[in-house]
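If it is no trouble, can you show me the amino acids of a protein and the tokens describing how it folds?
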Amino acid sequence: MCEMNMTDADRNNISRYKMREQAFILCFEMLFSDTDIDELADNAGDARDEFLSDYAVECAKGVREHQEEIDALISGNLRSGWKITRISKVSLALLRLAVYEMLYREDVPVAVSVNEAVELSKKYTVKEDAAFVNGLLGSVAKSL
């Protein structure tokens, strides 16, 4: 059980993969709520007995702040006739997070953003979605 007085260092002493997974979950929750990111993070801590890393919260805030630009980039790399509304919510949250990292996180190599989004997709979606996420992010990476 997590202690409520956990320090920032303790909360952030987890793997980057876990931080990214936390960010993805926040991005997914944002699809269903306009609630403030900090409140979503607090609710996650209460509901899942888990403290979210600063990285997760920063990325979720960045995705929300730059969502229009991120969605335009995703939409621009979809196959002809496809719309962003056709993408599953889980894949959309993963794509938004990865594109945010690719555009705004200089500390994360593009290949790492793509690879980890694909790995999270394998964990949370069906096999076909993982291939879709990989292909779309590869296309985005080439366009940058």
